[in-house]
């Protein structure tokens, strides 16, 4: 039987998970880190602010609501530090990193050590979810029949591999090669997904800037020049596709998984890389076993829509045509035209009607509003205006659809 299009989720209007934190929440987190308030005091504020932001999302018409990532410092959360075999370190040599990885390069150029560095120190094993309690609280805030729509974001399985140079991602006396290492990473994600599924979660979004780095000529040139590398960037990309697919072994049919690609979204709306999806499109769209692609498309640095001709008819794409980095508003009619332009390319690529191609599409901001808790160069009203605009675009193109 041909693969079926998985929808509701995703929805016609989506956002990418992270939302601006209210000042009270930021202040309380900083005070907690200084030992000035208790964990229970912080949790009470987090609970209150999450309850409020969920209500706001639902009021705006976003069915795939998240908790805004309000309990996280960075978008990737706590998955890796929560595994046996990984340890967060503060003292390390910078030569362990690929200096040409776009985010690493940005840190090093600014004279900073890359933050939140987690290293594999032993055999990797899942020993309990660091997300499930967060999801259970989120689920408690909506009617039971809405729980299946709620979205939780997860770190990319390759997150603590790409940033390290060949031979530095794990000890050689623990894993003799990438295949062994990736095998245990995949098992850990399988365990995480099962725990979340059993708690009622049906909507997962992986956040993966790393995959977009393979669109960057600067990164690819650095990779080619690195004498430590034992295979090509294309080979590594293929290994990451397999890693993802192995993570999804045993995935229930009613669990929706998607992947978000962007080119960086750091403090002050900093981006890290550039380059269109062209060189990775076939493998990304045809070999990666996800239902939905959440793609950055707000500036020229993401390239054009032409790669979407490779999107199969049983997969969705959420077009991030509205920027989350700055408050300047896009023209709604122009954004609607861009969506139609993308649909025409999908239709031509699959030899289907424009209407059928539009059925594979939704819209969103290009990234989160606060991948780092300090947030982008946009204020609360700016974020609200952007979310309203996305909803209006969706309502105009797909009337009466969530």
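^ structure tokens above, recovered residues below v
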């Amino acid at each position: 039987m041909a693969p079926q299009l998985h929808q509701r989720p995703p929805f016609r209007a989506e956002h990418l998970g992270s939302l601006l934190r209210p000042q009270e929440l930021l202040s309380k987190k900083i005070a907690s880190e200084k030992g000035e308030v208790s964990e229970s005091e912080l949790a009470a504020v987090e609970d209150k602010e999450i309850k409020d932001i969920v209500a706001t999302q639902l009021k705006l018409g976003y069915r795939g609501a998240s908790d805004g990532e309000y309990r996280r410092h960075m978008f990737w959360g706590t998955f890796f530090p929560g595994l046996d075999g990984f340890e967060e370190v503060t003292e390390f040599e910078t030569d362990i990193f690929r200096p040409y990885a776009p985010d690493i390069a940005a840190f090093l150029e600014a004279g900073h050590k890359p933050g939140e560095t987690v290293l594999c120190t032993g055999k990797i094993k899942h020993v309990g979810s660091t997300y499930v309690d967060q999801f259970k609280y989120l689920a408690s805030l909506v009617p039971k029949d809405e729980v299946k729509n709620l979205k939780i974001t997860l770190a990319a399985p390759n997150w603590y591999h790409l940033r390290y140079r060949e031979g530095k991602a794990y000890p050689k006396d623990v894993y003799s090669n990438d295949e062994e290492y990736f095998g245990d990473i995949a098992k850990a994600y399988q365990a995480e997904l099962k725990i979340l599924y059993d708690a009622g979660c049906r909507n997962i979004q992986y956040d993966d800037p790393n995959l977009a780095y393979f669109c960057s000529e600067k990164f690819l040139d650095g990779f080619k020049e690195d004498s430590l590398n034992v295979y090509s960037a294309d080979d590594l990309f293929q290994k990451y596709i397999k890693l993802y697919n192995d993570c999804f072994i045993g995935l229930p049919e009613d669990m929706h998984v998607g992947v978000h690609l962007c080119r960086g979204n750091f403090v002050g709306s900093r981006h890290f890389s550039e380059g269109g999806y062209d060189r990775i499109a076939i493998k990304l769209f045809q070999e990666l076993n996800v239902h939905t692609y959440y793609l950055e498309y707000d500036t020229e640095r993401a390239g054009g829509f032409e790669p979407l001709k490779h999107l199969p008819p049983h997969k969705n794409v959420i077009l991030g045509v509205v920027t989350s980095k700055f408050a300047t508003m896009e023209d709604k009619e122009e954004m609607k035209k861009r969506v139609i332009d993308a649909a025409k390319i999908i239709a031509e690529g699959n030899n289907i009607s424009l209407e059928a191609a539009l059925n594979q599409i939704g819209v969103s901001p290009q990234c989160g509003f606060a991948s780092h808790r300090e947030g982008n160069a946009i204020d609360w009203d700016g974020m609200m205006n952007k979310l309203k605009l996305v909803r209006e675009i969706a309502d105009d193109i797909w009337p009466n659809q969530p």
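The longest helix spans residues 39-60.
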